[in-house]
Write a structure and sequence with these properties.
Blueprint lengths: L1 H20 L20 H53 L26 E3 L17 H6 L1 E5 L17 E3 L2 E3 L2 E3 L17 E3 L17 E3 L16
Antiparallel strand pairs: 1-2, 2-5, 3-4, 6-7
Length: about 240
């Protein structure tokens, strides 16, 4: 009896083992892996902050130098624009006396262009120049923005000629040319060092070491900033 009972228990165990092998995987226990804990340790945080601080200390000066260099380039460009406008105004202002009344000599066609190829017109309204400004530089920067009356050089006679300080017209054959307004500056540039359209002026009659503007004309412009450039020069000396 005991042997028969043992055989039945073994057969029952084999059936249960076979049944468990046929169970789907979802009934099997899930395998778990050990993951590291979330967050950083205090040592890791200290090292991270130190590295970021070192990188920041190296980047900030580089950014500051880059910004300063860009402003210096803008200052150079602003000074170049104004000085070129002043020089062109002066060339066309002093070209007016070259215009003479019509010459009755048929072999002489009359007024011709001055030898400077950059001059194509002359300032016809000479009343803007005072007796304190015989060299005919612009009286101020606003004049360069507002513009002045100019006339082209013609091959015919000029009514009034060079003796008239305000030549109202010139003629080419039977066609009369009226003066037009020429603008030399679109606007007064902003000084990138001060953030204002405010400049130091120098008259052609001011001394080289003068610290104030005589007011006769605008011969040159400089920055009002007292800072120093990357090359060690003062912006006011540019």
């Amino acid at each position: 009896m005991k042997k028969a009972e043992g055989r039945r228990q073994k057969a029952k165990g084999r059936k249960q083992a076979a049944f468990r092998s046929l169970l789907p995987l979802r009934f099997l226990p899930t395998a778990r892996c050990l993951l590291p804990s979330d967050g950083f340790s205090l040592v890791e945080l200290v090292i991270t902050v130190a590295v970021l601080a070192i990188l920041t200390l190296g980047v900030i000066p580089l950014v500051q130098v880059t910004v300063k260099r860009q402003k210096e380039q803008q200052l150079h460009e602003a000074l170049r624009q104004m000085r070129e406008a002043i020089d062109q105004f002066h060339r066309e202002a002093i070209a007016a006396p070259l215009v003479t009344p019509g010459n009755p000599n048929p072999n002489n066609p009359g007024p011709t262009l001055p030898p400077d190829a950059r001059v194509r017109v002359f300032i016809s309204d000479l009343t803007i120049f005072t007796t304190d400004n015989p060299d005919r530089y612009p009286p101020d920067l606003e004049t360069l923005v507002k513009g002045v009356n100019v006339l082209p050089f013609a091959t015919g006679g000029l009514p009034g000629g060079a003796g008239n300080p305000n030549v109202n017209a010139t003629s080419v054959g039977s066609q009369q040319l009226l003066p037009k307004t020429k603008v030399y500056l679109r606007q007064i540039p902003i000084d990138p060092m001060t953030g204002k359209a405010d400049w130091v002026f120098r008259s052609c009659y001011d001394l080289a070491d003068s610290t104030s503007w005589g007011g006769e004309n605008v011969f040159d412009v400089h920055s009002k900033s007292d800072g120093k450039a990357l090359n060690g020069e003062k912006y006011s000396d540019w």
